[in-house]
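Order emerges. As here.
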Amino acid sequence: MRVVVVGATGNVGTSVLEALSDEAGVSSIVGIARRVPGKPHDGVEWVRADVRTDDLESCFHDADVVVHLAWLFQPTHQPLVTWRANVGGTERVLRAVAAAQVPALVYASSVGAYSPCQDDRPVPESWPTDGWPPAAYMREKAYVERLFDRFEAENPELRVVRMRPAFTFRRETASQQRRLFAGPLLPNRLIRPGIAPVLPVPRGLRFQAVHSRDIGRAYALAINSDARGPFNLAAEPVIDRFRLAELFGARVVSVPPALARTALAMGWHARALPAAPELFDAMMRLPIMDTGRARAELGWTPRFTAVQALRQMLAGLRAGTGEDTPPLTADAGGPLRWREFLSGVGGRDLIDQRG
């Protein structure tokens, strides 16, 4: 089986490559990225390409499966840039898959594609995927779901799988996730249990998490099966104020969500934080996902709990860890994180800025 992974150097992409490398039925792996790693991954053929501009059809010829993971989180201050990469880039991937007559396509959707839920009853894959439109990330994920609806209707012979994972963590991606969501002003040494006796948490905050390597295994299972359609992916337990208190070794104090949002908005407008306040609004409204279909039809069971996944990422933040790919490398921000400041903290894509 020949598998082409688009966006193979990021958080999920590196885990998918690891999982596929262990699959006896996979004879050829092609990794596509804007900037290929300096140190080759064993058994991976690398192709430098940008989903926004480069020829993709030739990359997909003779592929048995295309895995589409490429997604741009930043710059949040330029939503047209992320729209062109995420929506326009996905449209180009879909056209190339159809033109190259690839038999199967596996796509990285997200819990962020789901519409808000009024309670914590777990929702199945049939829950509406209209996202939270004010947030660019959710708006783009929801729009791409509509692209896939049309694509599947026009190509019924093609097997399409949509993965909808929860927040995805592992130790090696800690530096990238800090750059994307917390910015350059967060000192690594502050991410330590017990350093502060009190942890303020927005009232009602809860979310699901999963380890990146468990997500990589889910992709490998889907690739090596006849599975079709969407799959929710998350580990137990749900992360709430009590789990956060345990992780940080602190007493949690609930704060009004409006107060937390105001502080985030001030930081974002001042170019001190890269995550837009609308992303916080969306996070407060995310549904809890039912993962029964992935467990039953893919035979997928997470090996890491949600707490273990989040704990690994926090340990990585303290140590400033990364991995040897351009998006994940620990030193992407430069000495004293000067590249992050020059990028405008959400004003430009850091990977593009580095050339």
Observations:
- The two ends are 33 Å apart (CA to CA).
- The chain is about 40% helix and 15% strand.
- The mean pLDDT is 95.
- The CA atoms of residues 208 and 255 lie 20 Å apart.
